[in-house]
Write the structure tokens for this entry.
Amino acid sequence: MLTHLPIISDKKFLMKIKLLMLPFSGGAAHVFNPFFDFAPSWLTLIPTDLPGHGRRFSEPLLTDIHAIVDDLLLQLSHEMTEPYAVYGHSFGAVLAYLLCRKTIAQGLPVPLHLFVSGRRSPTCSNDEVLHTLPAREFLQGVLSYGGISQEILKEPELIKMLLPVLRTDFTAVENYIYRPEPPLQIPVTAMGGTEDHKVPFEQIIRWQDITAHRLRAEKCVGGHFFPFLDPKKIMELVHDILCQVPQISFSRPTSPVFFSKKNSN
């Protein structure tokens, strides 16, 4: 039975860290509001809106994932002058990974840690393509992820507002093609839901492919949107890991390590 790493008391942890937070397809910065209640005093949460989302709803939507990452870098580069980590869920996980790549390419300070959830490793192929489907079939595909009620199909005005945003995000992520690169010199934690039928856990542990560090893989109770049902669990995990920053090993392992209160079987 494996347990969490020992927690360093907040009183002994003097480093201030920022956590850049990237949402799922169709999401906006406000989806992370519940996380603020559980963030330690030394961690500043910075949820981010993409063009055409949330507070930036009036801006043009972007279908090119690399253009989205360029926009993120423009938004967030001033936050990278102090220690920071990055967290992305689902679509946001891919954006978070590419943002790490972009910071390296631009010679910017790299994050202390990359947290991802609800998304297969970029090295895994995507067999499902939704963005080219007619509107109703596309929405049914989106609804199959959970997190949105079937009742939305009875609200034509809401569908009219959400459909372009959702389709644009799915277009961006489904058209993304992984290009092999040297593994990141950044530690990675990958989280998957025990009931997430869209992202099997064997694809979660494949995040090991993109990091030179030993992957921390977490099984969390719930479906695809498990972080938003239990933000306290996510913040406790982030706390545990970032408190260990000075003690992280830089050796490359041969297999991922699992941290859970129960066996992973």
